[in-house]
Amino acid sequence: MNIPITNLSTIVKAVESRPAEAALPSSLDNVILHQIARDLRLIELSCTVDDSVEQPLAGPMCLILHMMQSQSEKLKGKSKLQMTEEHLRHWLQRYMYYIEREVVSRAIKMPCQFDSDDLMSEIQQNILTTK
């Protein structure tokens, strides 16, 4: 499978002016889903095996921050976000988990709505417990 280079403007267009759910793995088209899965895998490899690999953070972070900012506005009426490096790593790992599950779900043609619900629940819980 030949996956094109991640184009940040395409990702932004896919989610801008849309609710947080637009950035859920189940809402992404196949091209963006596979690009983000590849980018997250490269990030993981650079952290564990080969630190010379460039970390393609822009695409995954755009989607994660879109979900968090949109949910923050919805739940708290404000979109201000503060994130430590540790917090960022946590959300990259969580998003990777759900991206990988979505790739498999599509490959075996068995969607799982619980994954989207669980990810949104995690994000909401985080927003409500963070000052």
Shape verdict? globular
The average pLDDT is 90
The Rg value, from CA coordinates, equals: 14 Å
Query: Secondary-structure element order, as H and E?
Result: HHHHH
How much helical structure, as a percent, in the residues? 55-70%
The number of distinct structural domains comes to 1
Strand content: under 5%
Question: What features would you describe in this structure?
Answer:
The chain is built from five helices and no strands. The protein is an all-alpha fold and 131 residues long.
Give a topology summary.
Blueprint: H1 8-15, H2 30-48, H3 58-76, H4 85-107, H5 113-129
Helix pairs in contact: 1-3, 2-4, 3-5
Please summarize what this structure is.
This protein is mostly helical and 131 residues long. It has 5 helices and no strands.
Which features characterize this protein?
single chain; 131 residues; mainly alpha
